[in-house]
Specification:
By secondary structure, this protein is α/β, with parallel strands linked by helices. Helix content is about 35%, strand content about 20%. The protein has a seven-stranded mixed beta sheet with strand order 1-3-2-4-5-8-9. Strand 8, helix 9 and strand 9 form a beta-alpha-beta unit. Helix 2 crosses helix 3.
């Protein structure tokens, strides 16, 4: 699959993979900072953003998509940042084709299976009556019946756009995400990756817990963990300056 991407900056190539319901645009503020030091390649994963849709979705497939992109760009080895679902894609890639990575940063996710904790999000998204919308505000009002947090609603509504017929529709393949949610919640699998890895945890997030440390060390024996206090599941957006500093400290170190 030919993934949509945006490339900017100069330096060592740094690939950025977003999380579930996200797009490369969620990383815009970080990209602006990081392009001063890196050749940044921000990617839309399959069924997200402007990348193609497919009924099939799994970590082996998504990792293969990213490898295909690297091959198309003529990049043998890259640094990589993956957030949430994108972190699992990056870990899957690292454990199967370690020769393609220099350093890896995994943002607020562990190499474990998670419970279904997006049921209310899916209910909200499917409840939006697209053909009745006159504005994003209408969609927000409908989503509010299922999702109280305005920041999460705003994040989700970034997927809403007007197509060539001026009708509102979703950029993401909502049916595929719902139908493949078991695969998205699953753990990445493969052989231990012995390269340098940094896990970033949002201090208030529940995704990267101490009880997962055994799985982390087993699969990524050289990993360290940095905690960004007072941040949730999106530390790159919630504490951008601290996050950027941790990125540069890690990837620019010898």
């Amino acid at each position: 699959m030919k993934l949509h991407f945006q490339r900017s900056g100069q330096g060592n190539p740094l690939v950025i993979l977003h999380g579930l319901f996200g797009t490369l645009e969620n990383w815009g503020a970080q990209v602006k900072v990081l392009t001063e030091h890196f050749d940044v390649i921000a990617v839309d994963l399959r069924n997200h953003g402007r990348s193609p849709h497919s009924a099939d979705m799994s970590y082996p497939l998504m990792a293969a998509d990213v490898i295909e992109l690297l091959d198309d760009l003529g990049l043998d080895r890259v640094d990589m940042i993956g957030h949430s679902m994108g972190g699992k894609v990056a870990m899957q890639l690292a454990m199967h084709q370690p020769e393609r990575l220099n350093k890896l940063m995994v943002v607020d996710i562990a190499p474990v299976s998670y419970a279904h904790d997006h049921d209310e999000v899916f209910s909200g998204l499917f409840s939006v009556e697209l053909e009745q919308l006159h504005s994003r505000g209408d969609a927000d009002t409908q989503l509010k019946q299922h999702i109280d947090n305005p920041a999460i609603r705003a994040f989700l509504l970034k997927n809403l756009y007007r197509n060539q017929d001026k009708a509102f529709t979703w950029r993401m393949n909502l049916n595929a995400l719902k139908n493949n949610y078991d695969a998205i919640a699953a753990a990445p699998e493969g052989s231990p990756f012995r390269g340098q890895v940094r896990f970033i945890k949002g201090g208030q997030s529940h995704y990267l817990q101490p009880e997962y440390s055994q799985q982390v060390k087993q699969l990524f024996p050289e990993a360290d963990v940095k905690v960004i206090a007072d941040a949730g599941h999106w530390p790159h957006a919630e504490k951008p300056a601290i996050f950027s500093r941790l990125v540069m400290e890690f990837f620019l170190a010898d």
